[in-house]
Amino acid sequence: MSPSDQPEQPTIAAAAVDSTAQIDDLGEFLVHALELEHESAAHYAQLADTMEVHHNVDVSALFRHLAALSAEHAERIAERGRGVALPRLAPWAFKWTCPGSPEGGNCLDLEVSYQMTAPQALRLALHNETRGHAFYAHVAATSSDAQVRRMAAEAVAEESEHVARLQKLLDEHRQGGEDRLEDLDPPHAPA
Fold first, then answer.
1. Which of the ends of the chain has fewer CB neighbours closer than 10 A, N or C?
2. Which tens digits make up the pLDDT trace of 128-138?
């Protein structure tokens, strides 16, 4: 297994979490969780559109599936928080270290290309889900509010399932090898 095939380690993923920040209000936690999942869904949908434009159909379908899963997760979070007053947070008031959420596209160190293969897309998703898991685990471990800790622990369990599912898919794709998408219009080499 090459280093690029290995999943992101939680200690690295935890870098997306502001370790000095604590969320002690259920409404604030729900706003963070909803933003994380909505941004994730939007990012995957954007990647799917990009892959579709470049005729990378399999990876586009994979990103569309991931977008749908993130949207479903956001719906479950919204349902759990029904009736809770949600504060409005300025973009800079979110308690993560990236410009966007840990599962969004602004924290990525991984290369994104229109020629991505399914295993590369799965590694990207695994990276994102691991960062989301680290965020929820941090909240579950540091919040002084029992209800926030309980909801964060539920999110940790869901993210753990997502990480395991992605790891299984990645393992299955590794067995089949990685096919590169043929670039039908490659960049011109300098003369």
1. C
2. 888 889 889 99
Amino acid at site 155: A
Q: CATH says 24-87+99-104+112-176 is which class?
A: mainly alpha
Contacts of 44 (CB under 8 A, 6+ apart): 63, 64, 66, 67, 70, 125
Query: Tokens in use for 187?
Result: 């960049």
Q: pTM of the entire structure?
A: 0.78
The Cβ of residue 34 has, within 10 Å, a number of other Cβ atoms equal to: 18
Cα–Cα distance list, 91 to 36, 62, 148 (Å) = 12, 29, 21
Token pair 């002084």: residue: 144
Of 10-19, 60-69, 111-120, minimum mean pLDDT range? 10-19
Name the residue among 48, 73, 74 with its Cα closest to residue 62. 48
Residues 6+ apart with CB under 8 A from 154: 80
Tell me the pLDDT tens digit for each residue of 47-89.
999 999 989 999 999 999 999 999 999 999 999 889 999 999 8
8 C-beta neighbours (distance < 10 Å), count: 20
* Cβ contacts of 66 within 8 Å, gap of 6 or more: 40, 44, 125
What are the tokens at 147? Answer: 């209800």
